[in-house]
Amino acid sequence: MKELEQTKRISIASVLFILIILIGLLTYKRPKYIYELTPQQAVENVVSDNFLISLNNIPTTDAAIIDIRSPFEFQKGHLENAINIQAAEILNEENKIIFDKLKNENTTVVLYGANPNEALAPYMILNQLGYTNLKIATINLIYTQNKLVTQNATLELSEADVNAFIAASLKKAMVKEKPKAKTPSPPKKVIPIKKKKKMPTEGGC
Amino acid sequence: MINRKLAKASSFRYMILACILILLAGGLVLLPKYQQHEGIKPQELLGRAISPERYISTDEVASLIINQDPSYLFIDVRDEESYNKYSLPNAINIPLDKLLDEDFEAYLNQDEYDVVLFSNDHFYANEAWIICNRLDYKNLRVLEGGLNNWFHTIINPTKPTENMAATAFELYSTRKAASMYFGVAYPEQVKKETVPAKKAVVKKTIVPVKKKKKMPTEGGC
């Protein structure tokens, strides 16, 4: 009798044990995307600035060019041989396949948007996920007369020295405006008005 | 015969079971290392990074500084040299390469203040913003256009031409007033100042008021 009770307990315990393991296995979900770079590595990568590529340096062969603007913008005009993957959809299933394929083939992927800033978010996220073959094209897209024009963009260039500007404005304000020296006005030409000679009043009718 | 052997083995059964479990537990060591996610999900980060919600305009920042709003922190992510040259008033310098230093974490990872990140453009600021957002730091904003835009709109606003709307003129006058606050002088402003300056010199002289002595009331008529 005692033996029987013991086996009962053991069987219950083992069933429970197996159940827990099964539940654990079934509920375990591998996250679809995992960061391969730690934040610190991401900072180092970003500081290095070597992911930027100017218009002339975009390789014409062996590179995939990806337009991250909306399909609408893409239809209006895009770079040659570019594929359109909207920024919001870069992590979709089918796009993941494309990026994985490009990564395995080790082809350079050049991302571009209307300006480099637009391409930054997709780039940084994909890069942190371990796609190291990405670049950002530093170009601005502008429409002139309905034609797409690409320009090289300059990033993070200080355009003006604010302190110098303020100092200059102070100097300018301090200098009292000198009363303009009167330029001798050209002598007025006197046009003698010919007096009409009074005619003796002619008789009316 | 068989029974006896079985009985012998069964007397060890608990030991054997325990050994098996311990061995299985040892197997856990061999499992691949669980890859830990440092930060929020990439999908969520993408959603946040695409929305332009994070941008704050230069006009807003100017009014925040002028009103001395205590709930905002301004963080310059450029290098030290450019920070020393010019930066927003009361800005803190956190160079991009030192973004995740422990000394600066208290500035970025907190709930008390709204943090405005800025650089010359908004490219570096965006980089910093994305990395901080991955770590789920709250209340981060980016100055739209950065210091270049700051210069063109607040420090040196362009005068609207005559054919522009009245709102453009209003905007210009507020921006001009803001630029005066930040130290820019305009010739016409100085002229106005000279006039009250002269008035201020006049010293107040105290004229003691003589109390009238009360006269004994004289009889009336």
Automatic annotation (TrEMBL), chain A:
Keywords: Membrane, Transmembrane, Transmembrane helix
Transmembrane annotation, as ranges: 12-28
Region span, Disordered: 176-205
Domain of life: Bacteria
Keyword Ion transport: no
Domain Rhodanese, residue spans: 59-147
InterPro entries: Rhodanese-like_dom (IPR001763), Rhodanese-like_dom_sf (IPR036873)
Pfam families xref list: Rhodanese (PF00581)
Protein name: Rhodanese-like domain-containing protein
Organism for this UniProt entry: Lutibacter agarilyticus
From TrEMBL, chain B:
Pfam families the record matches: Rhodanese
Record bears the keyword Ribonucleoprotein: no
Domain (Rhodanese) ranges: 68-159
Coiled coil: none
SMART domains: RHOD
UniProt key word Transmembrane: yes
Superkingdom of the source species: Bacteria
Entry-linked CDD domains: RHOD
Annotated TM spans: 12-31
Entry keywords, A to Z: Membrane, Transmembrane, Transmembrane helix
Record's protein name: Rhodanese-like domain-containing protein
Organism this protein belongs to: Lutibacter agarilyticus
Organism lineage: Bacteria, Pseudomonadati, Bacteroidota, Flavobacteriia, Flavobacteriales
